[in-house]
Amino acid sequence: MSEFVRIDRDVLTRYEGNPILTAADFPCRMRAVYNSSAIKCRHPGAEGRYVMLCRSNQINHKTLLWGADSADGLKWKLRPRPFQMPDTDWWHRYASTVYYDPRITWIDGEYLVLLACQNTAFTRVALFRSPDLEQLEFVNYINAPDNRNMVIFPEKAPDGRYMRLERPNIAAAGGKGNIWLSFSPDLIHWGDSYESLQTDQVWNYGLAGLGPSTVPYRTDEGWLIIFHAIMNNCTTREYSTGAALLDLDEPWKVRHVTRYPILYPEADYEINGLVEHVCFPCSKIIEDDGTVKLYYGGADTVQCVALGTLDDILYACRNW
């Protein structure tokens, strides 16, 4: 394997209107909005409309899940109020400190939303469902601690089971780790797990940890996944963005992976903020013409989008 690749193009470019959402856009005082997930609607009567589920921080750093709507996926209007979250002992037991990083999948005629939830000891992931992303119905937590960064595939496996990517937290790795794939007959009970993408497969930019970030997208060459990658240096921890292709028949197997990031912190709103040096992807939308919108958080402070094409991302997977 060559240790040198001539990088001759930008795979993703920053939207000129970045950041697309900031704390100042809310109808009340907020501290930040970032790591939010967007989807192009699939339910009847809303085709072509875009919805974003925003991770937003109040000024005391408690989180809210806040909806936003768009006609083009670039200019967003926040809703008047955040989503109403469950008010039960079961919810508060595991979401007592923070819930964050929503991921949205359309499957079986409904939207499935995953939220990482933390108490003072560990992380579980909550599953919600919705017909239209106007209200969310809490289903249950779908893992034992400690696990996060989950995304559900938009199709079932050939044997009829659901599939998800996840990142178990390994204490010996500082709470980070590798990307795994698991199966479920009912979205609640998960197992038959395979380790898929490992930190040492992405060279230095991901040696400190990985996490699946966007819903997998079927291509002729495999399932396209976007992941966040972590690199520790002397003064900070850098979060950047990579891409990989998983085998269609055995999706725990990596066919191609970018050994160089396709997006990394360069802009001021990615370098400076509540957490410095962060480009953290949470969703992508691939349009019918092959253009791509990748939604990512900048410095844990603002919500951003980068633009590109499916062909260029696939090129990077094969050649970088």
How would you sum up this structure in a few lines?
With 320 residues, this protein is mainly β.
Characterization of the model:
With 320 residues, the chain is mostly beta strands. The protein has a single domain, classed as Tachylectin-2, Chain A, CATH 2.115.10.20. Helix content is 6%, strand content 45%. It contains 3 helices and 21 strands. It has helices at 89-94, 268-271, 310-319, and strands at residues 12-14, 32-40, 50-57, 63-70, 77-78, 98-107, 110-118, 123-130, 137-141, 147-152, 162-168, 179-184, 191-197, 209-212, 217-219, 222-232, 237-246, 254-257, 279-286, 291-298, 302-309. Strands 14, 15, 16, 17 and 18 form a 5-stranded antiparallel sheet that branches. A 4-stranded antiparallel sheet has the order 1-21-20-19. A hairpin with a 2-residue loop joins strand 15 (217-219) and strand 16 (222-232). The longest helix is centred in the C-terminal third of the chain and has 10 residues, at 310-319. The protein is globular and about 55 Å long. The termini are close together. The model has no long low-confidence stretch (mean pLDDT 95).
